[in-house]
Each structure stands twice: as C-alpha cells, then as structure tokens.
C-alpha cells in the first residue's frame, strides 16, 4: 500500500546548489532515557538547515503553522562529533575541535564528502573515489559512472559500519563496502529516469517498525522510495514528482512530531515538505474531537490577517512589475532597433544518458519565463552502417510553451543513434 503525500511549502531561500539542505534532529540520549515518563516540556520538532548560493545559511523551524527563522547567516560539508570535513572544488580539509589536522589536494573535482562512524577495530576519515586516510590516498574505487552524491547506508554504515550508498549522474544508485584495504561494489541498480541523483536519505517513511527506507531525490524532480530487504537489496515502492530540480532532501518531523515528512529544497530555492499528515482530519475517538482541528480553528483569525497582508504585498509587486515594464519599453524605444538586450540569467543543466539503450536525458532549470525550448540533435548512423557518414541528418525540435512557470524544471528523453 502506497503512502499518500501532501505538499506543504515552508519558505523560498533563493537559488541553491547540490547538498544544501539538512534536517537537524531533536533527539537526545536524555530523551531516550526518559521515554515513557511524563514530561512537562512540550516535544520539539526537527529543524531545517539550508544554504543558498548567495552564501546565506538559514535555520528554519515550524511553530503554530508558521515558518520561523532561528538564525540566518559550502557546498560540501560533513560533521562527525568534533570533527569537521570541508571540501572545495579540488581541496579537502579535516578540522578536529576547530584545529586543522589533515588536508588533501584532489586532481579531480570533488562532488561530495562523508565520514564513516568510528567502530572498534575500524578506521575512519574515508570518502569514495578516492578514499582518504589522514592526508594520504588509501585507494580508489572504480565505478561504472561518475558519482554525484554519497550517504551512509542505514545512516550508520550498515552492520559493519563501512557501507556507503552513492548516486550517479546518469540516474543509478549503488552500494559499496569500504574495507580497510579495498572497496567492493555490492550492488548498482537503475532508477526510474536517467536524470542525475542529487540527494539520498535513509528513513522509516513507509513502515515505522521496519528497517529504514532509502529515499532518492533527482535532478528532474523525481523522489523515489526503495525498501531494503535482509540481503541489503533495494526494491522500488513508489515515487513522487515535484516538477522542480531537487538540490537537497532529508527526512524528519518538522511540523509535527506525529507525522513523518520528506523535506525538499529545489534549485529555485523552494523549501517544502511531503508530509504523511492528512490535510483534512476527522474526529477522533478521544473526547469526540481532534486536537489538531481545534488548533486550526483557533488560528483562523490569524490566517485572515495573513491573507490580507499577502494581498497587499502582491499588489505592491504588481505595481513594481508594471513600472519596470514601462521603463523597459521606453528604453527599448530610445535605443537603436538593431541593438538587442541580453540579460544574464543563472541556468543549471545537464545531459546524461544510458549508452546501452542509445538514449540521453537533457534536464535544465532556469528562473525566468521560457516561451520556447529549442533542442537541436544530430542523428548519425552507427559505426557499422553501410553508408557511413554520408547520410547524417540534423533534427531540430521546438516546444512552444506560452504558459510556463518561472520555477519549472524541464526534462526530455532523446533517442536515436549516438556515438
């Protein structure tokens, strides 16, 4: 039986990059010891940490149906106790209790970093492709595709504390066992599309009593949920289409401590949650009334005030847009008609695919209105074609899109003969 998800928007933080979102859990050892005992303090929910491309770091929380900013201020960052691992484009730094301990310069671009938990007889401080021990290269793991994101298997490395999930740029997810001497690829499977995997998390979202599920976020907006059996095999269960490029994703209980949520951040900065909480809750058997329904009734007057504030803000924005449009038209008339206007807009895109099926997936994200999408592709015969290169054909496909949202991510599957 599939779980029904409902989307709830929390905030918009601006353009974001890969690996920008984390969910800070509100569970402690003291809370586990006092489990089952009555406490006067109300239960606190999880918090959301998200960073934008403008360098601002935000900590968000949900209270009484509102999104509150707790504090406001790196692409690759991992924290383990008092150890902090930072990565630039080609550099790796290890800080222990705010003191630099190790560093490493990588010949290739670094996409992600993580640290395995410390266990007796184990070793720590490893990444994947390559694996680093201290300031030295221990070994490299050769993968079939380019890895794009890493995550500890079952959030702790599995039973031996040294297994890592990885997602590739062509839409595959795999499991690798990082032993002290070499890395062994346990499995690698295809997902439901060729788009790049941008986020992975392990969380009990389908069955609260079983093992954690594997939730995968992708560049084309797909969120796929996989269950894990006793043999550590991933089995697909269901998916959700967000229609926006996903840059960060984690699971937790942000709005309510009774319902699980998949917290998602998109390229255009939208932070929202896919919650298992029903939008309309009926009466419960306890007292014949629902506490959540009563709370919503108390908040009704506040919602009306907020709606009026949003209406006034919307009118102000419409006036500003009208003024800018008039100013642009006057500027266009005063200039030479042969001169053009070019506006610099940030765009994120990728071209991935599967060579075995001769298919490619083109995915892009842009924060402007798009009226036409033009894709030119070259159809070439295979190397063993009788006529060789004499019959190359160029194909040009145009999509007319007059009503496209400015935060939309478009993905296309292109098929044909490719080199």
List keywords for this structure.
419 residues; mainly beta; Methylamine Dehydrogenase, Chain H; 2 domains; 4-stranded antiparallel β-sheet; 27 strands; 11% helix; 41% strand; globular; disordered C terminus; coiled coil; Beta-prop_BBS7
Question: Can you characterise this structure?
Answer:
By secondary structure, this protein is mainly β. The chain is 11% helix and 41% strand. It contains 3 helices and 27 strands. The strands form 8 sheets. A 4-stranded antiparallel sheet has the order 1-22-21-20, with no helix packed on it. A 4-stranded antiparallel sheet has the order 2-3-4-5, with no helix packed on it. It has a 4-stranded antiparallel sheet with strand order 6-7-8-9, with no helix packed on it. The model is unreliable at 28-34, 120-127, 281-289 and 375-419 (pLDDT under 50). Residues 74-276 form the BBS7 beta-propeller domain. It comes from Ditylenchus dipsaci. InterPro entries: Beta-prop_BBS7.
Tell me how many strands there are: 27
- Please provide the ordered H/E string of secondary-structure elements: EEHEEEEEEEEEEEEEEEEEEEEHHEEEEE
Distance between the termini: 43 Å
Q: Given this structure, which CATH class of the largest domain is correct?
A: Mainly Beta
DSSP helix fraction: 10-25%
**Envelope shape:** globular
Which strand order do you get reading across the main beta sheet? 1-22-21-20
The major β-sheet equals: 4 strands, antiparallel
Low-confidence stretches: 28-34, 120-127, 281-289, 375-419
Tell me the domain tally: 2
How many helices in DSSP terms?
3
GO biological process, one term: intracellular protein localization
Coiled coil: 293-334
Protein name: BBS7 beta-propeller domain-containing protein
Pfam family, one: Beta-prop_BBS7
């Amino acid at each position: 039986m599939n779980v029904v998800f409902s989307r709830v928007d929390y905030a918009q933080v601006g353009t974001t990059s890969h690996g920008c979102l984390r969910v800070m859990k509100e569970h402690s050892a003291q809370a586990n010891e006092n489990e089952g005992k009555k406490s006067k303090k109300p239960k606190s929910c999880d918090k959301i940490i998200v960073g934008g491309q403008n360098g601002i770091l935000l900590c968000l929380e949900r209270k009484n149906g509102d999104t509150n900013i707790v504090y406001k201020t790196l692409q690759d960052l991992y924290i383990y106790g008092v150890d902090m691992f930072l990565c630039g484009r080609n550099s790796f730094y290890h800080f222990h209790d705010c003191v630099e301990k190790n560093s490493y310069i990588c010949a290739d671009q670094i996409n992600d970093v993580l640290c395995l938990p410390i266990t007796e007889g184990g070793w720590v401080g490893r990444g994947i492709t390559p694996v680093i021990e201290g300031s030295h290269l221990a070994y490299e793991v050769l993968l079939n595709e380019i890895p794009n994101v890493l995550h500890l298997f079952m959030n702790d490395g599995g039973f031996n504390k040294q297994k890592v999930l990885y997602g590739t740029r062509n839409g595959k997810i795999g499991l690798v066992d990082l032993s002290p001497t070499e890395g062994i690829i346990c499995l690698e499977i295809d997902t439901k599309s060729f788009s790049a995997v941008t986020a992975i998390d392990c969380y009990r979202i389908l069955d609260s009593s079983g093992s954690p599920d594997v939730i995968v976020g992708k560049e084309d907006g797909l969120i796929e949920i996989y269950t894990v059996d006793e043999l550590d095999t991933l089995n697909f269960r269901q998916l959700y289409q967000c229609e926006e490029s996903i840059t960060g994703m984690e699971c937790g209980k942000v709005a309510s401590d009774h319902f699980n949520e998949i917290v998602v951040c998109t390229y255009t900065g939208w932070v929202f949650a896919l919650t298992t909480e029903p939008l309309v809750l009926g009466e419960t058997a306890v007292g014949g009334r629902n506490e959540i329904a009563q709370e919503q009734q108390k908040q009704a007057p506040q919602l009306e005030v907020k709606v009026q504030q949003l209406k006034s803000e919307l009118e102000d924005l419409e006036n500003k847009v009208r003024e800018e449009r008039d100013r642009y038209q006057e500027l266009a008339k005063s200039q030479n008609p042969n001169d053009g206007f070019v506006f610099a807009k940030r765009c994120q895109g990728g071209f991935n695919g599967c060579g075995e099926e001769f298919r490619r997936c083109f995915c892009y994200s842009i924060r402007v209105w798009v009226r036409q999408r033009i894709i030119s592709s070259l159809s070439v015969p295979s190397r063993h074609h009788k006529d060789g290169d004499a019959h190359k054909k160029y194909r040009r496909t145009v999509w007319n899109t007059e009503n496209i949202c400015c935060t939309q991510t478009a993905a296309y599957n292109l098929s044909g003969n490719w080199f």
